[in-house]
Amino acid sequence: MKNDYFKKYFLQHDFEDNQPKKVPGPVITIARDFGCYSSHLADMLADRLNELSGEDQKWRWLSNEILSEAAHCLEVDPSRISHIFGAEEKPFLHDIVESLSAKKYVCDANIKKTIVRVIRKYAEKGNVIIVGRAGCMITNDIEQALHVKFIAPFDWRVKRIQERLELSPDAARKKVIEVDERRKTFMSFYGGDKADCELYDTIYNRAHMSETEIVESIISTVKLRNLL
Question: What is the pTM of this model?
Fold first, then answer.
């Protein structure tokens, strides 16, 4: 009886060890300077990837969904954790007061860890484009990944912000400087305060390339890396 038990145990574990393990990915991360809007481009990229993928490998892109899911995991309203994405940490005294008064208290450290878990879950499942959210840092150990960044000259970005938000030139300039600094701070939460050459595989200048040119360039790289 005992011999049968051990035989069954070893056969089962030998079977499990020989099963092919799912390789994390593929994942594409998109970072962007403020003003280099990328929602439409991410839509275009997901559509092109889906044209080339099988029915069981549908691609999607995520950004705001990460905030919503992290809040759901923490059982709080998204407004309670959105300050982290704006690179604003709660002052120590405010943290103490909230911990005593809030029905559901979540500290900044827990919010950051939850963001990592949410992004890792999607990235490891694969066929996902993660826009912003320090995705390049949180997924930097995944081999089946492509990390890209969109940049543009400062004045070009100021003009885009001025038009979209209906701001004066001075207000738009101030907004770009402020958000650029916040994004640098947010990246530093996850060790992303490094040179671009250490974080990204390729960088695209939105002022010099059309959305179609960028999408097709990314598709070419995805093919060369066998991410499809």
Answer: 0.82
